[in-house]
Design brief:
The structure holds 2 protein chains of 2 kinds. Chain A is mainly α. Chain A is 65% helix and 0% strand. Chain A has helices spanning 5-15, 25-34, 36-53, 84-105, 126-142, 149-153, 170-180, 191-214, 222-270, 279-282, 291-298, 302-318, 331-353, 360-363, 368-376, 380-383, 401-407, 409-424, 426-436, 440-445, 447-457, 461-465, 482-488, 497-507, 516-536, 543-559, 561-578, 583-595, 606-619, 625-641, 650-661, 667-683, 690-694, 698-703, 707-723, 758-834, and strands spanning 159-160, 163-164. Classes of the chains: A mainly alpha, B mainly alpha. Chain B: Residues 12-32 have a biased composition (Basic residues).
Chain lengths: 835, 546
């Protein structure tokens, strides 16, 4: 049972010191001396007491909660839900400010608006106003672009009291820091912490700033907003600079101390006593000695020393660790690294072959474990055909130099420069090239060998390498389409094509000019057209040349994979429409087989290509010798595609069988098809249906009297039979029965909604918000209406009262006049009668 | 009314006299006009003649002149056609006015005129049928067809109990049936009249039947059969009830009372056509539309049983097509087909997966095999045989087979031993280790109950899991994964082809950069010893063989 009102009042009065025990005269005197101040304090205290005793001043729960323990927020019970009086008066006030003027202005036209800056803004002081006006004036005068951050710098600087008004003044910040933090800091804070704190406080200041700016009710003009934005961005800029400078300072400071720290560390590990540091530095960096001892020596308290120690340790942690410089690698290491790179690529290829998604994390060459693993078995690389025991000075087999010519950027740059310089030094090099002219005939035949040999020595030789074509021009237009390419290559003999292509690639290397990328892309696309064109031509171009061109395309498609792939797919589309592979198409298909990894589970170019080949084999029948020959080629190509992934191609078996039964066979073609069969049998030797796949081929082979392959196939079939087992495809773990355990919520809050359906939960929230807003708006409107009605009534009353007043005044006036006149009259009358 | 009669006679007389003079004038006129073969002139003349005839009976002799013009061989087509058109107008006017009907008590001259008119009419019909409809010029054919049908319509409308058999329609149909080649006229007839009007259809059925039965020469019969087939095939929807037959050119004929008579008419026409013996292609086309277009026309589809059974026994694509007809009879008419599954099993041959009727067959096969009461041995045979076929089949075939097999496994759990068979007995296990095994399945066995397929495994599908096409390979993997899905909707897997597979990939733009092989091979066509490698040699073979 709470004490009664009266008791509570008494106690609170006593608490506030308004009533109390009787005071002595002395005390009263003292009190009187305090005077005015005291009285005001007393008034305030009384007001607060009165307020707290007014039951209508605070809104509480309608009835207090019965059991405190049902809620997990015990302070709920005593919470004041609102102050109706205060809010009401506030609302009234606000309405008076906004609604009333509006109401008064209603149905009125004209008037004078005071548009002077800040005139209607009560929050602006006189100084602010003049300042703002001055600012505006200066801006007008300048007439420059307001939004130009750079310009604004060298414009007029606003000053106040002779000091610059820059927000980010370092000195100012320092002041601030000194004021706010100085008291708390123990003075021994080192630079870093202070800096940090300052930065934090700066940030805090920054955060506070917009809030302050928001306070004025007045809506900001666009110019002002923009100005603010500019100021802010400038501020940020300066801040960044400042921070950078600070960091720089900090680092320098730390750097200065580095040798000492290092020495200290070393001393610490070796337990070697450090020569005593100079006394000035002893405060800062004194790691050589046990900090406890040092603290004792210095006469500091233990806590202080510990604290300092912790700071130092933290500082050390934040310091970047020095890295050892990279050691020059030995040849073995290089070879090993190369082997590792290849192995990694091979791993990736295997992943693609299995059709596993390449996740980003897998792409990163990071885990140490893996590297250890690689180092553990170096010979693994050999398994994949890349020998790790490489002869010194040469590149691993299979990786072409031609490629590095383009791929390694730095190498390329020097390369192409060399090429360009070569062109200028043409004369001097002429001798050496002339000397090689003798073997021109020879060179044509062994072009690739020579190329690799010469290029391996240095990039400069690339042009000299093809001495055979020294009569060729050194500069060419970069053809952007096949037509242009034909024009450019018109006078070039076919054998020289690779050289010319190489020169064009060097001349238009992507590093030399921004446009060269596109040029080379188009050029490569034209080359793709060209290999098809060359193969279709009669007589067909020598295969060596086409091969060299394919290799060029390959190396370029590393740089521009998308465009070239798109172009090749165009060719595939044409083949899809015709379904009649010309030698040109076959060349393209061959090129696809070397340029792209054919073992991938899915590949944007390879998959359509092999589907096209399979379609051709599936839908045609060998009616001509040409068909049989094309079939042999496509078969071999398909098997070449599948050399790693060993995927099964049903159409190949079908077509080969048909070919072997066909009447258009030549001995060479029989041999080719038989070879295909054997290759296929080797590739697919592990497939479970080997017997079913290859048994139908026995009869045709027998018919063609191919005894040796026949025997081989029979052996393989026998082997397959031996290894055949009943299928066991379903060693799966039994699926667990679906469980329906109710989902428990940790720390369940009954006031919260746990809707698992996110959309629905959002919708509910939105609906609630809408309802609340709507209620609020309606309430406001209602209050507005009340206010308006009240105001109107008041107005009317005023008016009525004024009228009444006036009326009364008039009547009284008239009465008075009448009375006066009557008196006058009476007086006159009396005078007359008296007369 | 004697007065009017007399006047009529007098009129007729006068007309005849006038006609005579007219004719003389006419002849002179023709003589006069013929030397100058001015088309414009002749055409205006024709129009004038026509209007004169329509004006009064006096000018009836103009009909003969017009007939002359129409009949003239080698004359200008346009004028001839124009003349026929005007003649048609004339005759249809006469027919509708009843001027060509004799009635009792008519005066003699009147009868003579009518007789004369009838003769001219017959002459006109002959011209249209023999000269125009059989001509090589499509325009003439088309005109003749339209005009004849117009006349048929007029005739039918003019007389209450019009006997169609006497009219031009039977002759028209017969002429059409005897037209060689792909007659445009026949098509037009089918399109414009046969499909539109039920009465025309009714009488055409009759005509077809009669003309087929009356002709027994082999050469003509084949022509007749193919032509009648093309006419009959053009009909797509059969009437469902009597109410459907309200599209009539003229009034309904007497026999044309019930749906059953209508249908039996159609049935007889069909039977007559089928009886003539169809070529393979014709048979296929008939079977192709059998259950939708043909069977509904039959009063008793059972009549077709022999035809279907024969077709089913032909083998190949014909059998595949006959299957749907048989299914129709079996499901609708309770047909009992002995050893149906044996036959069905025999249809699974090498060509099945390459056939263009593949999807159709699979739809039916899925229906036939949908029963869960089929013996597991039989189902296993089907599974094994189809997987064997899929091993050599195109991707589209594999794509159809694999989900089907999945569904069957799901339906017949006894067959799942084909996927997973643990050998537990140590003896057999040892034997297996030492000697391996052969496939117990006998591909040559005809009876699906005896193939021993259930003892076998589907190694073929496992092989297809490494198919060159990624999608096919992935699909084949469903067999070795857990069977959690209830069933695959076979319909989604049926209509695939090489082109569809290619379109899917080549049709879209590159989204990701394609991976490029990291290693540039040193040799592609050439080999180490400065000669051509295997691919290079093959390439030269290709180039040389061109």
């Amino acid at each position: 049972m709470p004490p009664s009102q009266l008791k509570r009042l008494k106690s609170s009065l006593r608490e506030q010191g308004i009533t109390g025990p009787q005071k002595s005269k002395k005390q009263k005197k003292q009190q009187r001396n305090a005077g005015q101040d005291q009285r005001a304090q007393k008034a305030a205290a009384l007001a607060s007491i009165r307020e707290s005793f007014n039951p209508f001043e605070f809104k509480h729960l309608a009835r207090p909660k019965k059991f405190d323990y049902v809620t997990n927020r015990p302070d709920d019970t005593k919470k004041v839900l609102g102050r109706p009086g205060v809010t009401k008066s506030q609302g009234e006030e606000a309405r008076k400010k906004t609604l009333l003027p509006e109401m008064n202005r209603r149905n009125k036209v004209g008037g004078i608006l005071d548009r002077r800056i800040g005139e209607n803004d009560p929050t602006m002081s006189l100084d602010d106003r003049t300042m703002a006006r001055f600012e505006r004036e200066q801006q007008r005068k300048k007439g420059a672009n307001v939004f130009d951050l750079e310009e604004a710098d060298d414009g007029i600087d606003l000053t106040h009291g002779g000091r610059s008004l820059r927000f980010d003044d370092a000195g100012e910040a320092e002041d601030y820091d000194a004021a706010s933090v100085g008291g708390s800091s123990d003075g021994e804070d080192d630079g870093f912490l202070r800096q940090k704190r300052r930065r934090d406080s700066d940030a805090g200041e920054m955060d506070g700033l917009p809030e302050e700016a928001e306070q004025p009710e007045r809506k900001k003009s666009k110019a002002e907003v923009m100005k603010e934005v500019i100021a802010k961005s400038k501020l940020h800029k300066y801040e960044r600079q400042q921070q950078k400078d600070d960091d720089e300072d900090l680092r320098e400071e730390l750097d200065k101390g580095l040798p000492d720290i290092l020495a200290a560390l070393r001393g610490h590990i070796n337990k070697k006593p450090e020569p005593p540091a100079p006394p000035k530095e002893a405060q800062l960096v004194n790691f050589g000695i046990n900090p406890d001892r040092l603290a004792l020596l210095d006469g500091k308290s233990r806590e202080q020393a510990d604290k300092e120690y912790d700071t130092r340790v933290r500082q050390l942690l934040q310091d970047q660790r020095a890295k050892p410089t990279e050691r020059t690698k030995t040849e073995e290491e290089k070879a090993k690294e190369e082997a590792e790179r290849l192995k990694e690529l091979e791993e990736k290829r295997m992943r693609r072959m299995r059709g596993e998604a390449e996740s980003e994390s897998e792409e990163d060459p990071e885990p140490n474990d893996e590297q250890d693993h690689f180092e553990g078995d170096v010979d693994d690389a050999a398994e994949f055909g890349f020998s790790s025991a490489l002869p010194q000075g040469t590149r691993p087999q299979g990786v072409d130099d031609e490629d590095d010519f383009l791929m390694d950027d730095d190498l390329v740059a020097s390369d192409s420069e060399a090429d360009v310089s070569d062109v200028s030094e043409d004369e001097s090099n002429q001798d050496s090239t002339m000397g090689m002219d003798d073997d021109e005939e020879f060179l044509k035949d062994v072009l690739p060998e020579k190329k690799t040999k010469t290029k391996a020595t240095s990039g400069v030789v690339t042009i000299n390498a093809d001495a055979a074509s020294s009569k060729l021009a050194y500069t060419y237009q970069c053809p952007r389409s096949h037509e242009e390419l034909l024009v450019v290559f018109k006078d070039v003999s076919i054998a020289d094509l690779p050289t010319v292509v190489q020169r064009i690639r060097a001349l238009y290397h992507a590093g030399l000019h921004a446009d060269n990328r596109e040029k080379l892309t188009d050029f490569t696309c034209a080359l793709v057209d060209h290999i098809s064109y060359l193969s279709n031509r009669k007589p067909a171009a020598p295969l060596q040349v086409i091969e060299a061109l394919i290799r060029h395309i390959h190396s370029m498609s590393r740089a521009y994979p998308s465009q070239i792939a798109t172009h090749i797919r165009q060719h595939l589309k044409q083949l899809q429409a015709s379904n009649d592979p010309t030698p040109g198409d076959l060349t393209i298909l061959t090129a696809i087989g070397t340029i792209y990894p054919t073992s991938d589970h899915f590949h944007q170019v390879v998959t359509p290509a092999i589907t096209l080949m399979a379609r051709w084999m599936g839908l045609t029948s060998p009616t001509t010798t040409q068909n049989v020959a094309t079939g042999a080629y496509i078969g071999a190509l398909c098997l070449h595609y599948q050399r790693l992934s060993k995927r099964y191609i049903p159409e190949l078996i079908r077509y080969t069988t048909l070919c072997l039964k066909s009447s258009h066979l030549t001995p060479a073609l029989v041999a080719a098809h038989t070879k295909n069969i054997l290759t296929a049998a080797d590739l697919w030797s592990t497939t479970p249906a080997f017997i079913e796949i290859f048994t139908p081929l026995l009869a045709p082979l027998k018919a063609q009297k191919q005894t040796q392959p026949l025997q081989r196939l029979q052996v393989l079939l026998q082997n397959a039979k031996l290894h055949r087992r009943p299928q066991t495809l379903h060693f799966h773990k039994p699926l667990p029965i679906k469980q329906s355990i109710p989902k428990f919520e940790e720390a369940f809050d009954p006031n919260k909604h746990y809707d698992p359906d996110r959309e629905r939960a959002d919708a509910t929230r939105l609906r609630k918000e809408y309802k609340r807003e709507r209620k609020g708006a309606m309430r406001e409107l209602r209050k507005d209406a009340n206010f308006i009605a009240r105001e109107k009534l008041r107005e009317k009353k005023d008016k009525d009262r004024a009228y009444e007043e006036k009326h009364r005044k008039l009547i009284s006036e008239i009465n008075a006049e009448e009375g006066r006149e009557k008196n006058e009259y009476e007086r006159e009358k009396r005078a007359r009668t008296r007369r | 009314m004697p007065g009017t009669k007399a006047a009529d006679v007098a009129g007729a007389k006068r007309k005849r006299e006038i006609g005579k003079t007219e004719r003389k004038q006419k002849k002179e006129k023709i003589r006069r006009t013929s030397p100058s073969p001015d088309d414009e002139d002749l055409q205006t003349t024709i129009l004038r003649l026509e209007s004169q005839i329509l004006e009064s009976r006096r000018h009836f002799n103009n009909i003969a002149t017009l007939l002359q013009i129409a009949k003239k061989e080698g004359a200008d087509d346009e004028t001839a056609i124009l003349s026929t058109v005007s003649l048609c107008k004339v005759f249809s006017r006469l027919l509708s006015a009843g001027d060509m009907v004799k009635s009792k008590g008519m005066p003699h001259p009147e009868v003579v005129i009518i007789q004369w008119l009838k003769d001219r009419y017959r002459e006109f019909l002959d011209i249209l049928l023999d000269q125009y409809l059989r001509s090589d010029i499509p325009a003439k054919q088309s005109v003749a067809l339209t005009l004849l049908m117009r006349l048929v319509e007029q005739e039918a409308k003019a007389q209450k109990d019009y006997s169609w058999k006497q009219g031009p329609l039977p002759r028209l149909v017969e002429t059409l049936l005897f037209l060689p080649g792909d007659g445009d006229a026949r098509e037009e007839f089918a399109e414009k009249f046969l499909k539109q009007f039920d009465d025309i259809r009714f009488y055409t059925f009759q005509c077809i039947k009669e003309s087929l039965e009356s002709n027994s020469e082999i050469t003509t019969q084949q022509l007749l059969a193919s032509n009648s087939l093309s006419l009959l095939m053009s009909l797509d929807t059969a009437p469902g009830a009597m109410d459907d037959r309200n599209n009539l050119l003229a009034h309904a004929p007497k026999q044309f009372k019930s749906l059953s008579s209508y249908k039996s008419q159609a049935q007889e026409a069909w039977m007559a056509t089928l009886r003539t013996g169809l070529s393979k292609e014709q048979r296929k086309s008939v079977l192709g539309v059998f259950s939708h277009q043909i069977a509904p026309w039959f009063q008793q589809p059972e009549m077709l049983m022999d035809f279907l059974t024969d077709s089913y026994n032909v083998g190949g694509g014909t059998s595949l097509l006959a299957l749907s007809g048989l299914y129709y009879l079996m499901s609708e008419k309770n047909l009992d087909y002995p050893s149906f599954f044996d036959k069905l099993y025999s249809l699974l041959d090498e060509d099945l997966l390459h056939s263009k009727h593949r999807s159709r067959f699979f739809r039916l096969l899925d229906t036939f095999m949908s029963s869960t009461h089929l013996p597991a041995v039989l189902v296993a045979s089907f599974i094994k045989r189809l997987s064997r076929l899929a091993l050599y089949g195109p991707p589209a075939g594999v794509v159809a087979v694999v989900p089907w097999i999945y569904n069957l496994f799901k339906r017949h759990p006894a067959c799942t031993f084909m996927m997973h068979r643990d050998i537990l007995e140590p003896n057999i296990k040892r034997e297996l280790e030492e000697e391996g095994m052969d496939d117990p399945f006998d591909m040559n066995e005809k009876d699906p109950m005896l193939t021993n397929a259930i003892e076998s495994s589907i190694w073929e599908i496992e092989s297809l899991q490494s198919h060159y096409h990624p999608n096919v390979a992935t699909l084949a993997k469903i067999i070795s994964e857990q069977f959690t899905k209830r069933s695959y909707n076979l319909e989604d897997f049926l209509d695939h082809s090489y082109n569809a597979l290619l379109e899917v990939e080549l049709g879209k733009d590159l989204k990701k950069e394609p991976v490029v092989e990291f290693e540039i091979p040193k040799r592609i066509f050439t080999s180490e010893d400065s000669g051509l490698g295997p691919l290079g040699q093959l390439m030269t073979h290709v180039v040389e063989s061109e």
